[in-house]
Amino acid sequence: MEDYQKGHDVIVVLSAMGKTTDELIAKAHEINPEASKREMDMLLTTGEQTSAALMAMAIGALGVPAISLNAFQVPMHTTSRYGNARLKAIDTERIQHELEERKIVIVTGFQGINRYEDYTTLGRGGSDTTAVALAAVFHADACEIYTDVDGIYTADPRIVKNARKLKEITYDEMLDLATAGAGVLHNRSVEMAKKYGVTLVVRSSLNNSEGTAVKEEVDVEKMLVSGVALDKKAARISVMGLKDEPGIAFRLFQILAKNNINVDIILQSIGRENTKDISFTVQEEEAEEVISLLEQNKTKITAKEITCQKEVAKVSIVGAGMMSNPGVAAKMFEALYSSGININMISTSEIRITVLVDIKDGERAMKAIHDAFELSE
Amino acid sequence: MEDYQKGHDVIVVLSAMGKTTDELIAKAHEINPEASKREMDMLLTTGEQTSAALMAMAIGALGVPAISLNAFQVPMHTTSRYGNARLKAIDTERIQHELEERKIVIVTGFQGINRYEDYTTLGRGGSDTTAVALAAVFHADACEIYTDVDGIYTADPRIVKNARKLKEITYDEMLDLATAGAGVLHNRSVEMAKKYGVTLVVRSSLNNSEGTAVKEEVDVEKMLVSGVALDKKAARISVMGLKDEPGIAFRLFQILAKNNINVDIILQSIGRENTKDISFTVQEEEAEEVISLLEQNKTKITAKEITCQKEVAKVSIVGAGMMSNPGVAAKMFEALYSSGININMISTSEIRITVLVDIKDGERAMKAIHDAFELSE
Q: What is the pTM of this model?
């Protein structure tokens, strides 16, 4: 509102209110547990339209002209896939016209239309993605994401009491933090922001505090480590007794890839009698499916035994400064060793180090690492 | 469903569920009592989309392919006026395509889009109008209107216990019955059905009974009187002491017409001192507005006094056979006289006679007339 009054053009992207989407899904499942995804999207898109219309009325009540637009009115073109479509193109004409009439334009997030002129929804993080895409096509100064936290912290402030809010963070760090379990922004919206160079600002919808900017380069000297993330929803799958011959690992992971399962840390070790064992982590909610897929293909992948361990947690540190500082991993492991925490598996990327620990050690590990890198200053 | 299984094409038009529309209106008024009509329509149209999507899922659960379409998807073109638009044109291509794929097509009633690509709603009786319009453009065999009563009765069966359900009734009789207060069908949908020769069948959504057909000509010999209607929501306005000169009545009714107020029975009588009095009835809910309009224009219309009487009821008989049977009015008046009921005002059309009585006499008048014409057989 302030921005509008300063003369800026303002586009607002809204998701459905509170539990609306969950309630609609529950109602649909009651009627038809196998309802078509096309009709699910037809149903769910009413949620954003409702909140957009009510928001336009609320802004109107303040004496500021506002107009709500749904995916048909923009229009917001997506791929055809119901329930998980991708944005393809956004027509700017209608929005531009309304902006020129000095209206605040309220756009329904999360939804689009496909080439059949049917509603689609964008899946998880959909409204953020809509906002970033609009910011990109309208060359917006910034894209503010209003959420229930007031920014990105060096660690989850509910667990690490002295966690510090970051003023800025790079896209890559944000992506790695999200993958590592920090649930503020969905990867898709960050990836799109990175691609189109849209500066994101993560802010609270409840207070007016400054938030965290997510951008390509951060102004201050790159911090060694920007944050620590904890993901308790990991599961470790071990596939044992595999034949030690080429192509076995490829077959195994191809099965998972075909079923859209993201695999994280992978560890391969030599087993007994000329065999090898492969362990990897997946999201806990996908563990059952993975086990069932692998059991079906047990012969094909020459596995003797498949086990699943859910009492594990991933602890990650993320920082763009890590690349040029070889001592970071050592410092992290030292912090864990000093606290008597055992490391099960390790995985690293250029700007991230993740360790797998017992779930009981997760929070303690996070705090120890946060202290070791003096993230609270 | 039966019709579909017999190989017929089926288009279903749905309104919003139960109290949805009222709840949405209440929510909007809470946020902004003067919300723009454009945003109200944006909000209200979610109601039909929700019920259409859920219905498609419910039919899908029975193993029958179904698809829901909203006003954008049909598209359903209307005039620009939000809250009370008129249908202009319906594109048949998309619906035709879905019918050819042997799907049951569920269309959102009550809504359309205007030339700005904004949602509009059709006002009262809107979903019935949508259904009749679709039946017209698709040359449907019949348009079934499912409602909470199972047909058109010779009188309101809640009041006249021995009222009889009519097998058939003409459009004109139906129109006069609706005007006279029988609230089953809205005039707009009947007028459209008459214009395009669409046979309507009024049926119950709760049971499978046969219902009443509304059409141009009824097969059986025309009944003298088809039904008796009672309207307790009338108000009598009297404007007294008007100058007895040309143009006064014209001025008065022009003011009301300009404000979209429907006037019913009109009575003009000679007052004292070379003046005249004009009385007429309006819908009770519009009485306040009428009084205020007339008070504002008191000088212009040369009125000395304006009074309003709300304790009145209109009782009407309707029947296509009336035209050629001069004794009908006399029989009606006789029935009222025998019951000691005083008639305040009278109005007649070719196939309707309406009398204004005190509200306390309304139900008794209805029963007496129903008996006099032996409508229960």
A: 0.79
